[in-house]
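Run: sequence + D-glutamic acid -> complex structure.
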Amino acid sequence: MSKQNKPIGVMDSGVGGISVLKHIHALLPHEDLMYVADSLYAPYGNKTAAEITNRCMIVADYLIAQDVKALVVACNTATAAAIDELRATFDIPIIGMEPAVKPAAAASKSGIIGVLATVGTLKSAQFAALLENYGRDVKVVTQGCVGLVECIERGELDTAETKALIRQYATPLLVEGADTIVLGCTHYPFVKHVIQNVVGDQITLIDTGAAVAKQLKRQLEEKGLLSTSQQKMPSNQKSKVHFWTNSEAENAEQVTAKLWGN
Ligand code: DGL
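>> structure
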């Protein structure tokens, strides 16, 4: 197979990265995608950087063995912990992600932004550097959302428990005067409607899924790795999207289908 027509690997601690996968599939509909949810080891957010890096190396090894041409780390927590080691180890384009502090700071009128993320992301050196670079002119209020990823992993997007956690975590940001809130974990776009409901329509919610897809496209273009199947594919034939999980939950397939949307 030509290197252009190899699949793109996308990984996350669990199902959260599917929110990024959707943007990638929409922007690059002719690319074959391989998604890995490391759900047996989710959440990453309360693990040490060394533990997260170990898991990321195992998942990346698996995807490299599937001959992917590029790897998207669709997880803020994993990027913060492991991106340097992944890039030092594997010789393919590796795209990571970080909470959207920069666009949020630019969008805020109150000069106060909130960041919802995992504890792992918030305490990382990468996040400290992000605040140093882009958070200087605004007040940044952060909130670790312990337990929220687990609800989303179970497919519980609208339950009383999920809503109560979101209310508990979003309220302090509002009290501090944030008018823009960063969804700094790829799981959270799946409960964006609940968050918006809790914080109200006047608050802007920002995530980075679309930006990551654009960055991936740029890198593939630069390296001459965009799929050439567009010309060859009959119009009724779509690219392949494979999902792989090590989840032991009985409803893993239903949760994946629900979040992917078909
Ligand atoms: N989806 C992940 C992120 O973007 C991490 C969730 C977790 O495993 O704690 O940070």
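>> summary
The beta strands are 8-12, 33-37, 70-73, 94-95, 112-117, 139-144, 180-183, 204-206, 241-245. The mean pLDDT is 96.
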